[in-house]
Amino acid sequence: DTAVSQTPKYLVTQMGNDKSIKCEQNLGHDTMYWYKQDSKKFLKIMFSYNNKELIINETVPNRFSPKSPDKAHLNLHINSLELGDSAVYFCASSQVTGGASEKLFFGSGTQLSVL
Amino acid sequence: QKEVEQNSGPLSVPEGAIASLNCTYSDRVSQSFFWYRQYSGKSPELIMSIYSNGDKEDGRFTAQLNKASQYVSLLIRDSQPSDSATYLCAVFDTGGFKTIFGAGTRLFVKA
Q1: Is residue B34 within 8 angstroms of chain A, CB to CB?
Q2: Which of A29, B13, B52, B84 has the lowest tally of Cβ within 10 angstroms?
Q3: Least Cα separation, residue B14 to chain A (angstroms)
Q4: B105 vs A: CB within 8 A
């Protein structure tokens, strides 16, 4: 039943490790996103994919590598984790038609803590 | 850099009052505007969308849009303690193919 599901919900790891977050949507949307929400709750886009193609890369360090095997899945791999990567990462999807966005559906978020 | 600005609050209103949340945006050609509600520890959830100038009502919520002034607002009538949350104003950047969020306004409704 879950529209956008992401795993894991919590991720605690050491600096320098590599980790992945997975996201899947069953809404049939063409566009998927990764957003980062920092400690001040500011929600900022990192990447967007439309039909498996990368559309947006918002000056994110290349330690972050998204992958979209199909339009229902968007994963995020992070290499060499740093303290500053600690945040909540949200996956989202939406349908963009005629240049206007429909609503964003968010996953439940992944709380990443880098120690 | 396209921006969406909100007063971070907190905005405190008594139960039953009208809460008024405001937002301005920088991109004059924006066409799609949204309000999301985010409870602490939860993900954002869309509560209102508006595309045309004027008011749009949905239950206790009214969104107002003035494209000439580049201004969007959200009114919550008969505020309830359960409305206490952070409200995020969002604008779809058509050229950039992405939604830009404001920093959010924290609302507290006192019982």
Answers
A1: yes
A2: B52
A3: 24
A4: no
